[in-house]
Design goal:
The structure holds 2 protein chains of 2 kinds. By secondary structure, chain A is mainly alpha-helical. Chain A is built from 7 helices and 2 strands, in the order ααββααααα. The longest helix of chain A is centred in the middle third of the chain and has 24 residues. Classes of the chains: A mainly alpha, B mainly alpha.
Chain lengths: ~170, ~550
């Protein structure tokens, strides 16, 4: 227990940075709120009232958290009060993560061109095949079924106007 | 009240609502079973699908998902020591030990039975108390409502985080994000930076899909597919001794759960931890707790179930959610054009009572589903994560698009997914952030109304309301109390949340454990590293 406590009490750089970012966000909202009126028409609450006060609060809380982390190490317990603190991620996981983020970003960029469903279906296939290295045939099958089911559910049943990209004219 | 309950049954027992209630609890159970997907994630992902429904049907389905995921989460906690929900963490202590001793069946069965019994009684209490709360709150004006919102923000900051300052920070961040867009008082566009998409603010559902679904999935990437312990149909039989031992624990858990559930922000996680603490103190087999005692499963699961129902008292009657999932459900109410609060009981009795009665039906369906089918559901745990998470990402983005048919929604899900991932890696609490997002606009609305009521003298109008002053004083005490007590006790300013003490108790548990695995299954509160070993070590890539 004591060893664990010592570990927690050591200031963690990532946590310090996160707290500093929180403080910076608060300061930014506080500063930007001066574009708007704090009160309007005889002292009524104006558009800057809440963001200015909340921004100042977040800036102060962020700084206090930095202080807390530096002085005694802060408690990080997630939503449950018992979530595991994240350990260092492996190189393999880091590559996976970057691939997933890049894949999603690419799919979003391709959506206006290919349409939403084809872009996301390709994303699913790419993640299964290249990131997770799952067998080819089941991956293709699952991705295609997902695309078809999504088309039937969202496009046909719910009548959501899904972007069709290049297929717009063809399918229209 | 009887007329209202009859009205509720009339609404909830329609064929359509029964079907969607069943679909909700089934999907909820499956979602709860899947590692990394909790009730908040499930409700957030599936919310877009319900937009085409009648509000009552949609809410019945979403509530079914909420309750179902609690049941499902316990199955994974018992079979693979990987809780699908934060509130099921405690079930890993004795539930997993029971499973390892070949008693997975009785552990699953008593979990379902105690959760059902507790849910049944707590829903009856909900019938009685929700209306009473609403009646009291009917006398509230904007000033008192503003004070209640402040109390809600304060309680979740204190209870959810284990660190009051951080909880407050996350909550305020949520309020600030909610400030983006057109100000409701003056029509001025704030922090939109010329983007028309931001004029209507940051949409709740997209933010929640990003934070909970995408963020959580990415956080789970380094964990492979779990290898569950087998549980067969014939193993589900409970002995008379099991039932005799579990009954008092279920009653204790139910009382603790319901009382804590009513408190905005306290939620089912705290209830399950406190119930386990109570079993350690009052159970006949308290000295053996943690080695696979049935009381350690029955009590916390009863508490979780009762708290999940109790959380609807503040959500429906005051418009202040009890936790992250009820915050999302509150967002769903707003999306359907319904404003929760005291007037809801007068304006939408069919909806309120239909929803409350559907809880009873949902829990009954869950019992019927879970008692015989828990081992079948457990087979889902064999589904490879490599297939699962790309499909969930796919569903999340399409679902987000379906809400407003806007490419901007996809971008928001991506951005909030990254934010959610970072916060989860850092182990920051997301519940206060969501609550800030949901309550922020409501709080500002009551602030503007109060200021108008006081002709600009906000302090004066608050001071003129003794009710508001008392509520604000309680909120201030909640925020200031724990750090002050912590300072007085000489613990410094590390956190001072109530969770810390609960976790200390559990740490004691883990330290006393006869074998290392139990400690591993629960040690996330220490430095958290060891929870990646032990039972989690049974996962395979």
């Amino acid at each position: 227990m004591s060893a664990e406590t010592t570990e927690v009490r050591r200031a963690r750089r990532s946590v310090l940075i996160a707290y500093a970012v929180l403080a910076a966000i608060g300061a930014a909202f506080f500063a930007l709120s001066f574009q708007y009126d704090f009160t309007v028409r005889g002292g009524l609450v104006g558009p800057a009232f809440l963001p200015r006060i909340a921004g100042a609060m977040l800036a102060v809380i962020g700084l206090l958290l930095v202080l807390q982390e530096v002085r005694s190490g802060s408690v990080l317990a997630g939503d449950s009060g018992s979530d595991e603190a994240a350990g260092r991620i492996s190189r393999r996981t880091a590559i996976k993560l970057i691939s997933v983020f890049a894949g999603i970003a690419l799919a979003l960029l391709l959506t206006p061109v290919l349409g939403l469903l084809p872009a996301l279906t390709l994303l699913v296939l790419a993640l299964m095949l290249f990131v997770e290295r799952m067998p080819v045939l089941p991956s293709i099958l699952i991705a295609v079924i997902a695309g078809v089911v999504a088309h039937l559910l969202f496009g046909v049943v719910l009548q959501v106007p899904l972007p069709l990209g290049l297929f717009e004219g063809v399918l229209a | 009240m009887i007329e209202n309950i009859i009205l509720g049954f009339e609404q909830a027992l329609s064929v359509e609502n029964l079907i969607w209630c069943f679909v909700g609890v089934l999907l909820g159970t499956i979602i709860g079973l899947l590692p990394g997907l909790g009730s908040a994630t499930g409700v957030a992902i599936l919310l877009p699908l319900t937009l085409a429904f009648d509000p009552l049907t949609a809410l019945i389905m979403l509530a079914g998902i909420y309750h179902g995921s609690q049941y499902g989460a316990t199955i994974t906690a018992i079979l693979i020591a990987t809780p699908g929900e934060a509130s099921s963490v405690v079930s890993t202590l004795d539930g997993y030990q029971m499973a390892r001793k070949g008693r997975a069946g009785p552990a699953l069965a008593i979990s379902a039975l105690s959760a059902f019994a507790s849910a049944f009684v707590s829903v009856l209490l909900l019938f009685a108390l929700a209306q009473a709360f609403a009646d009291i709150a009917l006398g509230f004006g904007p000033v008192e409502l503003m004070a209640i919102m402040a109390l809600g923000l304060a309680t979740i900051s204190v209870f959810s985080a284990g660190n009051v300052l951080l909880g407050m920070g996350m909550c305020v961040l949520g309020v600030l994000i909610a400030c983006i867009g057109i100000d409701m008082g003056t029509g001025v566009a704030r922090f939109a930076f010329g983007s028309i998409d931001l004029y209507s603010g940051v949409p709740l559902v997209e933010a929640m899909i990003g934070l909970f679904a995408v963020g959580e999935l990415l956080n789970q990437l380094d964990k492979g597919a779990p290898k569950p312990i087998r549980a067969r149909f014939r193993d589900l039989l409970l002995t008379k001794e099991d039932l005799k031992r579990a009954t008092p624990s279920t009653i204790r858990g139910m009382v603790i759960g319901f009382v804590l559930g009513i408190l905005p922000g306290a939620g089912s996680t705290l209830a399950s931890f406190m119930s386990y603490g109570a079993e350690k103190r009052f159970s006949k087999h308290r000295k053996k707790m943690g080695t696979g005692q049935i009381e350690g499963v029955a009590g916390p699961d009863a508490a979780t179930s009762a708290a999940a129902n109790g959380a609807f008292v503040p959500t429906l009657a005051l418009g202040v959610p009890g936790g992250a999932t009820t915050a999302i459900l509150l967002g769903a109410f707003l999306i359907y054009g319904i404003t929760p609060g005291p007037l809801l009981f007068e304006e939408e009795p069919e909806l309120v009572w239909g929803l409350l009665v559907s809880f009873l039906i949902g829990h009954l369906l869950l019992l019927l589903l879970n008692l015989p089918l828990a081992p079948v559901f457990a087979q889902l745990l064999r589904l490879k994560y490599g297939y699962l998470y790309p499909l969930i990402i796919f569903t999340s983005f399409i679902g987000a698009f379906a809400i407003s048919n806007n490419m901007f929604s996809l971008l928001l899900v991506f951005v909030f997914g990254i934010i959610g991932y970072v916060f989860k890696r850092l182990n920051f609490p997301l519940a206060p952030l969501v609550l800030g997002l949901v309550i922020g606009p409501l709080f500002e609305k009551s602030l503007v109304q109060s200021s108008a009521l006081g002709a600009g003298d906000l302090v004066g109008i608050v001071a003129a309301s003794p009710t508001a002053l008392v509520i604000l004083a309680i909120a201030a005490l909640l925020l200031i109390g724990p750090p002050v007590i912590s300072l007085i006790r000489g613990k410094g300013l590390r956190g001072a949340g109530i969770d810390e003490s609960a976790l200390d108790a559990l740490q004691g548990d883990a330290d006393d454990a006869p074998d290392g695995e139990r400690a591993d299954a629960t040690s996330g509160h220490g430095d958290g590293r060891s929870s990646r070993d032990g039972p989690r070590g049974t996962r395979e890539e």
